[in-house]
Structures are given as C-alpha cells and as structure tokens.
Amino acid sequence: MSTETTTTSTEISAPSRFLNEITATSVIVKLYSGEEYHGILESIDGYMNVTMEDTKEYVHGKLIKTYNDVFIRGNNVLYISNV
Amino acid sequence: MSDSKSEPLDLFKVLLDEKVHVKLRGAREITGRLHAYDSHCNIVLSDAVETIYDTDANDQLISTQKKSEVIFVRGDSVILVSSPNDV
Amino acid sequence: MSTEQSSLSQILPLELIDKCIGSRIWVLLSGDKEFVGTLIGFDDFVNMVLEDVTEYDVDGSETQRKKILLSGNHITMLVPGGEGPKSVAVN
C-alpha cells in the first residue's frame, strides 16, 4: 500500500521473516527467568505471546514437566531459537 | 504478516469452560475452570486451587494451597497457561 | 540551513545498528545477560535476529544457538563488532 520507510532496509522485517521460517518447527523458547520450553511452535503474535505443542519445560537443564498445548505470555520471553 | 488462521490467544478459546493450569509470577500456580479471559490475559477461574511454593528455614520446598470459588487473575502476572492433563 | 547541518552531523542510533547487519554484534541486557552473534536484522522494537550466537548467562555459563529472535524488551546496550565479555577482560 503506502511506501513506509522502516528502520531496516528490507520490506518485511527480519524478525517476522524468522518467525515465518520457524512456525510449525521445533523451537526453544527461553524466558527471562531462565526456564526453557522445548516444543513445536504453533503460533506467535506481535507481543511474542506464543503457543507450543508437545512441550518440555527445563530449569537449569533439568526436565521439570511436559505439556500438550501451552500458551506463554510474551512479556516473559527472552528469546526464541530454532533447534 | 503471520498466518491469520491461528494466533496464540485462540488457545484460550479452546480452553473455555475447561480445566486449566496457570503458572504465575512469584512461584504460584492455579488450576481451575476457565470462565473468561481478555487480550491482556486477565483470567477468571472457578473452583480454583492456588498453590504457593516457598522454602522453609532448612531450604526445603514447601507449598500451601488456597481454594476459591471464583478468582480473577490479572494478566500481567501470567507466565503460562495450559490444559492440566500433563505428566 | 539548520536542517542541512543536522542531516550532516546526525546519525540516528538505529542507523548505526542498521550498518551492523551482517556483522558480529555484542548485545547486553539488563540483569547481566549477554549475547554475541551475527546480526541478521531487527525491527522497530529492536527485537533482533542473531545467528551463530553465544549466550552468556548470569551464572557464567555459555550456550551456543544457531539462530535466535531476541526480544528487544530487555536490551540495554549494543556494541558493534564486539566479541563479547572476554574481549574486555579486566585484570
């Protein structure tokens, strides 16, 4: 539509492109408090709210819990990594 | 730009009227039946059991439980929401 | 006149980061967490995509990650070309 000038020179931002790449694949979501969630990325929104499937919760590298479907509120997210 | 077919908050829609497990800031967890939610993750649960974890003087993990018929949870303290049928 | 002057002397902070795309960058977060990686790109919130990443945690541990989307929320400082905490070891 309009020719908006973003800070990055590309049309679709690198974060959006990366998220499209990794949706429906295995990812690691790390929270600021240190917990890691390993699972399949189902969906994500602009707040970095995330839902994952077949998720394992690790604290200090130790498996704590498993979840089928899980929603993580975006403000807790430190990073999302591919595996 | 992301797929419009599914967004994270859709999971709440699926979980409405179901038992859910909510992990909160401050080493707290609540299980209860999901009655209502909004885009901030403010949540209303019924038949809720809140578990609060702490350590005693000997650094042993202790937990206390509180039951409520209805409870409102402010969204900013929510870390995680899931269905409770976990291992 | 004054606009011309400012356009010559000013470089916006995010322009500087834009110049770092494709290069190594050192990212410092609040709470003693640090990341070093190759900057792939970023958005208006300074959420950043990094590749070949080393994560330095509060406890001193290091973790390698291939590619991450780092939330801009807790970023405090960006060091272009920085090679991480070890490059500025203090005796």
Walk across the major sheet of chain C and give the strand order: 4-3-2-1-5
- What is the rounded Rg of chain B? 15 Å
Proportion of residues in helical segments of chain C: 10-25%
For the CA atoms, what is the radius of gyration of chain C? 15 Å
CATH class of chain B: Mainly Beta
Principal-axes geometry of chain C comes out as: globular
Structural class of chain B: mainly beta
Largest sheet of chain B: 5 strands, antiparallel
Task: Explain what the structure shows.
- Chain A: This is Sm domain-containing protein.
- Chain A: It is found in: Cytoplasm; Nucleus.
- Chain A: Belongs to the snRNP Sm proteins family. SmF/LSm6 subfamily.
- Chain A: Keywords: Cytoplasm, mRNA processing, mRNA splicing, Nucleus, Ribonucleoprotein, RNA-binding, rRNA processing, Spliceosome, tRNA processing.
- The complex is a heterotrimer of chains A (about 80), B (about 90) and C (about 90).
- Chain A is mainly beta and about 80 residues long.
- In chain A, about 10% of the residues lie in helices and about 50% in strands.
- The N terminus of chain A is likely disordered.
- In chain B, strand 3 and strand 4 form a beta hairpin.
- Chain B is mostly beta strands.
- Chain B has one helix and five strands, in the order αβββββ.
- With about 90 residues, chain C is an alpha+beta fold.
- In chain C, a hairpin with a 5-residue loop joins strand 3 and strand 4.
- The chains are: A mainly beta (about 80), B mainly beta (about 90), C alpha+beta (about 90).
- The interface between A and C is medium-sized, with 23 and 28 residues.
- Strand 5 of chain A pairs antiparallel with strand 4 of chain C.
Write a concise synopsis of the structure shown:
Chain A: Residues 14-83 form the Sm domain. Chain A is mainly β and 83 residues long.
Lay out the secondary structure:
The complex is a heterotrimer of chains A (83), B (87) and C (91).
Chain A: H1 14-22, E1 26-31, E2 36-44, E3 50-59, E4 62-72, E5 77-82
Antiparallel strand pairs in A: 1-2, 1-5, 2-3, 3-4
Chain B: H1 10-15, E1 19-24, E2 28-37, E3 43-55, E4 61-73, E5 78-82
Antiparallel strand pairs in B: 1-2, 1-5, 2-3, 3-4
Chain C: H1 2-9, H2 13-19, E1 24-29, E2 34-42, E3 48-56, E4 62-70, E5 75-80
Antiparallel strand pairs in C: 1-2, 1-5, 2-3, 3-4
Family (chain C): Belongs to the snRNP Sm proteins family.
Organism (chain C): Wickerhamomyces pijperi (Yeast)
Pfam families (chain C): LSM
